């Protein structure tokens, strides 16, 4: 007998960030076609042939010939979505029409929009707004609908980007398929070893929720497990693992512990709010210098450069430093190349990032993971996939999405294209008798 306490669907999408939203839009029935007049002959022959044959429904294509020719299907969709100046700035090579949706739900523990719900209040992105959009609902359309003064070619602020992501399910007609505020704690193989069974709870103390599906889109993002320093005193009240805004930190002396872009943002903003900032990093100075110097097109990195170059007394950077302990009353013991140093602060902000929670898949075959680096450091392990479909090489019918797909770049423009081959494979298989 069917267990009615389980919510069953053909597809569960786990994670409502840009990774999960990109596939949700396609499973909701939005099918890309080639815009008439798009100069597809400019592509290499295998792509031009595929575009010619499948221009009315690009998801009907079999992407194996591209892969055999050494091309990644995700890159094709990225090039169609963002063809660049040769085809007119801002113009996408794809248009979308609505068809029947697949039976799916998207389960996520916060609102849709993923980690952007929790980045600092005034955070500017690293990329233009247009690069962070889901192609079926461009940022330019959102700006028109909402009357917001957003220039899609400019960096976009959090307080425009989050409402944009929040608008997507309603605009694309799948709001009733979103289960937000549900945290999934375990995933196991479904009945008779087929499909997936997910266990979760609404935030707070609600009853256990169960979801079952034939296909799983796995998009919990790069920070589903927040890292900790794991040193004594890390839970003392002056230590916080989240930075939103400088005004949350009364007092003058603040230590920022980290070294990535989130920590750079916090250190710069706190400095400019008049705080005395000690910026404690494990890394070598050369690494941070390179990151700053290669990011000077971004206004907040230009600002950090000038704070450093003018020798501001409000910012002290301590490199090659390891935190040993936090002590009551604002003490931090650090080790710098074997030398002990004691700091006294009003607040310590630990911004050391996170990693994907692959432990959720421990009941399946061991995962083949591939380390992904950006230009500066190791970032995370990505899941290996069959490139023509985006399906995991280890778990049948599981499709990683967002940051977690092997070979995709660590940005929305870098991974949004991978949603298309994955959605095409799910559509094809779920329609098969
Ligand atoms: C500070 C910072 C700046 C960045 N700047 C840019 C930028 O300018 N441009 C750019 O393109 N990219 C940027 N990125 C990259 C960023 O990671 C992506 O923009 C994007 O948000 C990643 O999308 P995602 O869907 O893979 O993951 P996420 O956005 O993290 O979404 C995953 C969602 O799944 C939820 N989830 C996780 N585990 C569970 C669970 N067990 N149960 C239920 N829900 C779960 C998470 O809480 C989250 O809401 C930046 C990242 C950071 C941290």
Q: Could you characterize the architecture of this molecule?
A:
By secondary structure, this protein is of the alpha/beta class. It folds into 2 domains: 6-224 and 355-431, FAD/NAD(P)-binding domain, CATH 3.50.50.60; 228-352, FAD/NAD(P)-binding domain. Helix content is 24%, strand content 29%. The chain contains 11 helices and 25 strands. It has helices at residues 18-27, 45-54, 64-68, 73-81, 139-146, 158-171, 261-272, 285-293, 299-309, 412-415, 419-431; strands spanning 6-14, 30-34, 94-98, 104-108, 124-128, 155-157, 178-180, 182-189, 196-202, 209-218, 225-226, 239-240, 253-258, 276-281, 315-318, 321-327, 331-336, 339-344, 347-351, 354-355, 369-373, 378-383, 385-386, 391-392, 398-400. The strands form 8 sheets. Strands 1, 4, 7, 8, 9, 10 and 25 form a 7-stranded mixed beta sheet that branches. The protein has a 5-stranded parallel beta sheet with strand order 12-19-13-14-15, with helices on one face. Strand 16 (321-327) and strand 17 (331-336) form a beta hairpin. Helix 1 (18-27) runs parallel beside helix 11. It is globular and about 65 Å long. The two termini are 23 Å apart. The protein binds flavin-adenine dinucleotide (FAD).
Content of β-strand: 25-35%
Largest sheet geometry: 7 strands, mixed
CATH architecture of the largest domain: 3-Layer(bba) Sandwich
Distance between the termini: 23 Å
Q: How many beta-strand elements? A: 25
